Amino acid sequence: MRWDRFFDDLEDQLASEWEAERAALDTEAERLRLSRVALKDRLAQLVGRERVTDSPSFELSDGTVIRAEVSGVGPDWVALEPDHGRSGAVLAPFASLTSIGMPHPDLLLTARPAPARSAFADRLTLGFVLRDLVRRRAFVAIHLASGRQLTGTIDRAGADHLDVALHEPGSPRRTDAVTGHRLVPFGAVSWIRVDGPALV
Predict the structure, then answer these.
(1) What is the pLDDT of residues 149-196, one digit of tens each?
(2) What is the pLDDT of residue 191?
(3) Which is higher by pLDDT, 34 or 73?
(4) In the prediction, which pLDDT does 130 show?
(5) Are strands 89-93 and 77-82 parallel, antiparallel or unpaired?
């Protein structure tokens, strides 16, 4: 009888050690998975989320804070639908995001394993989206990291810069309405407000 109890204790101890080892392996595997998660993957988890909590707040390099829902994510940009203010969409390069505030449940949601993204979505760079704005002749307000704002229409978008024809809000891009032109490196852009429907 004493031996039976001894073997039961050994079996319980072995099972307990096995569970502890398995939990440690699961924890290490989760740490390894999280070490490979990119910002675009975490933000993509917020697209179309159920709005049971406040919208995330995005702090940008020019000091602006925008409370908004994520409407689209590319490899180097995020599209936002602001909660308040003028209609239209906001496009922000990842490099201009200084912090993102959100309720803890949403923070945990963004850390979950994400569904696979299409290869096409990963090719939709900031330049690609800006070239679509060129095609649509959309009015934009470009907010620079320096705090300045440029308003007008984007004429061209290269690999790492854009050309903007400056004109007053509400006026179409006509030669007589243009007050100047600027060539703007993407690195100087904090965020872009686009008049009209959402970007994506």
Answers:
(1) 999 999 999 999 999 999 998 888 888 889 999 999 999 999 999 986
(2) 97
(3) 73
(4) 96
(5) antiparallel
Q: Three-class SS string for 62-116?
A: CCCEEEEEEEEECCCEEEEEECCCCCCEEEEEHHHEEEEECCHHHHHHHCCCCCC
Q: Other CB atoms closer than 10 Å to residue 81's CB: what's the count?
A: 17
Is residue 66 included in any domain, yes or no? yes
**Best CA proximity match to 196, nearest among 117, 133, 154, 131:** 133
Max distance between CA atoms of the chain, in angstroms, equals: 102
Residues with Cβ within 8 Å of residue 200, at least 6 apart in sequence: 71, 72, 79
How big is the chain, counted in residues? Answer: 200
The verdict on residue 58 lying in a domain is: yes
CATH of the domain at 106: 2.30.30.100
Number of domains making up the chain:
1
CB atoms under 10 Å from CB of 59, counted, come to 15
Q: Is residue 17 part of a domain?
A: no
Distance in angstroms (rounded) separating the CA atoms of residues 185 and 114 = 32
Report if residue 120 sits inside a domain.
yes
Domain that holds residue 93: 39-194
Query: Is 92 in contact with 77 (CB distance < 8 Å)?
Result: yes
